Amino acid sequence: MVKSIMIQGTASDVGKSILVAGLCRIFYQDGLEVVPFKSQNMALNSYITLTGHEMGRAQVFQSEAAGKEPDVRMNPVLLKPTSDRKSQVIFNGKVLDNMDAVEYHEFKPTLSGKISELYQELGAENDVIVIEGAGSPAEINLNSRDIANMGMARIADAPVVLVADIDRGGVFASIYGTIELLEPEERARVKGVIINKFRGDKALLTPGLEMIEKLTNVPVLGVIPYGDFKIEDEDSVALKNVNRHYDNNKELDVAVVSLSKISNFTDFNSLELEPDVSLRYVFPGDVIGNPDVLLIPGSKNTLEDSLYLEESGLANEIKLLRQKGTYIFGICGGYQLLGEELFDPNQVESSTGSTKGLGLLPVETTMLETKVTAQVKGKRDVLEVTGYEIHMGETTLKGVEPFAHITTENNKEVDRLDGAVSEDGKVYGTYLHGVFDGSEFRRDFLNKVRKNKGLEPLNHITQEYKDFKAEQYDKLADSLRESLDMEKIYEIVNQSEEE
Which of 228, 233, 223, 218 is nearest to 196 (CA)? Predict the structure, then answer.
C-alpha cells in the first residue's frame, strides 16, 4: 500500500493547496520522497512540463515544495473553462475534448481506473503522497460519480484531514455540516480537522474546539494563523486579493489588464521582487491611468477578450498609451491581442470567425485545432530567456523583429523564432509564459523602462525567482510545524499504509 494523507476542504479557497504544499515541504525536509496529487483540478492557470504535458499550477508549486520536477501524473485531469458552460478536458497532459457539465459528469466513471493507475505509479516511486481534494466532499448532488474528494480517497484508500477557513466565518458549522453530510464509510476516513487562517488569540477558540471534537468525534490537529506567504495562486479567485493601486514609493508603475478570460496571471508575480516596481491590476470599471508598463496577460478565449477590450473602452485607453510611448508587453493571448487581426476559421474559440486586434504589432494570428504545449529556452539578443508555451494559435509576422530565437523545445534542439517587437522597441509580444521569472531578462527590460523615464539603471540583479519560492516554502513549513500536531499527522500517514 502507498502511504498517503488527503487534504479535503469544507469549501473552495479554504487553503487546501497551500496546506498540501506545506506538508510536502515538511516531509521533504524530513528526508522522505514525497509528491503531491490532485486527481481533478479546474483552473485557467496551467504549466507545461519538461515532456510538453499540461498540468495545473497548484501541483507545480506543490512539487517544487516537495523537491520534485513537476510531473503530469500529479494532476491527471485538468479542466479549463472555455465559456460559462463548457470546459476543455485535459487528461494526463493532453486535450481530450470540450465538454459541458452534464457530458463530463457522465464521462467521469471512465477516468477512475486510469487515475488509479497513475496514482499507483507515483506511489511505487515515492514514500508518501499528499492528496488534495477539490471544493467540498459534501457536494451531495455530485458524490455518486465523484473522483476528486471521497471518490479519490476510496481509490487511494487514503485517510482524510478536513481543513476549514475561519476567516470567512461559520467555521464550526461548516466543519460539523460537512462531516454530517458524509456517508458513514466516508465519515470514518476523516482522521482530523485543521482550522486555517485564524487571526487573534487562540485561547478564545478553546471552547469551540472542545465542542466540535465532541460533536464529530474527530480531533482538531491544529489552528493555523493567517500567514503572508508569497506562493503562487492557480485560480483567478485569487485576483480578488491583488493590488489595484500604484504605490508612490516605487519608481515604476506596472499595470496588468485583467482580461475577462484571464489565464496564467502568475506570469507577473516575479516582478514584485524588484525594489522599484509597483505591480497593480486593472479591473472592469478601473482606469488604466498612465503606467510606465502595461502588461496584457494570457487568455483562455482571445477572441472574446478582443471584444471585451473594445466594449469596455480599454482598447482605446491602450491605444492612447501607445501614442504616449508607454511600454506594452503581451504574453500568449496578450501577444495575439496586440496584433492586427485574429482568425478562427474552425471556430475553436468563437463563432464570429475573425476579429480585429489592437493593431499595435504587425502580426496576424490564426486559431488552430491543435494546442502547442512546450517548455522552451532561447535568446533575446545576448540574454537567455526561458518559459513555456500553451496556445491554440499560430502567429505570422509581417516584417517585424522577433522577440526571441528559440533553441530548445521540450529538451530537444530547435531553430525557430518567437514573438515580435515593434520598431521603436516599445511594444513586445511573446508566447513565453514565465519569461519574467529570469532575473537578468527582467532587470534588463525594467532598465529600458527606467531609461525611458529618465531614471538611472539598477545594476543589482535581484534574487532568482526559484530561490525566492524555496524560501517561501521553508517559511510555510516552519509555520505549519508550529501550528499542527505533526506527531499525530505522521501517525495518520503511517496508519494509511497499515490499513
Answer: 223
Query: Which active-site residues does the annotation give?
Result: 332, 433
Q: What are phi and psi of 263, to 5 degrees?
A: -140, 155
Neighbour count for residue 448 (Cβ, 10 Å): 15
Cα 401 to Cα 419: distance, rounded to the nearest angstrom? 8
Find where cell 510606465 sits: 292
- Residue span of the structural domain in which 317 resides: 252-454
Q: Is the distance from CB of 402 to CB of 236 less than 8 angstroms?
A: no
Q: What residues are paired with 254 via a beta bridge?
A: 279, 293
CA 475 vs CA 25, 231, 470: distances in Å: 10, 11, 9
pLDDT tens-place string over residues 374-410 = 999 999 999 999 999 999 899 999 989 999 999 999 9
Same domain, 63 and 197: yes
3-state SS assignment for residue 176: helix
Quick check: helix, strand or coil at residue 274? coil
Quick one: cell of 183? 456517508
Q: How far apart are the first and last CA of the chain?
A: 8
Tell me how far apart the alpha carbons of residues 317 and 304 are, in angstroms, rounded to a whole number. Answer: 18
Q: Are residues 412 and 295 both part of a single domain? A: yes
Compute φ and ψ for 493, nearest 5 degrees. Answer: -65, -45
Of the candidates 321, 324, 325, the residue with the CA atom closest to the CA atom of residue 309 = 321
Which residues lie below 8 Å from residue 443, measured CB to CB, with a gap of 6+? Answer: 274, 458, 461, 462
Type of residue found at 39: S
How far are the Cα atoms of 374, 409, 416, 427 from residue 50, in angstroms, in the given order? 8, 9, 18, 29
The reply to whether 12 falls in a domain is yes
In this structure, the answer to whether residues 196 and 268 fall within a common structural domain is no
Judge whether 242 lies within some domain. no
CATH number where 375 lies: 3.40.50.880
Of residues 160 and 240, more confidence is placed in: 160
- The three cell numbers of residue 239 are 485576483
268-277 mean pLDDT: 95
Residue whose C-alpha cell is 478582443: 306
Q: CB within 8 A of 348, min separation 6: which ones?
A: 367, 368, 369, 392
Return the C-alpha cell found at 324: 504616449
Name the phi and psi angles at 121, rounded to 5: -60, -45
Q: What is the length of the chain?
A: 499
Note whether residue 241 is domain-resident. no
Q: Are 54 and 72 in contact (CB under 8 A)?
A: yes
Indicate whether 164 pLDDT > 90: yes
Interval 414-426: pLDDT, tens? 999 999 999 999 9
Rounded CA separation 474/266 (Å): 20
Rounded mean pLDDT, 113-124: 96
Find out whether 196 and 166 touch, Cβ atoms under 8 Å.
yes
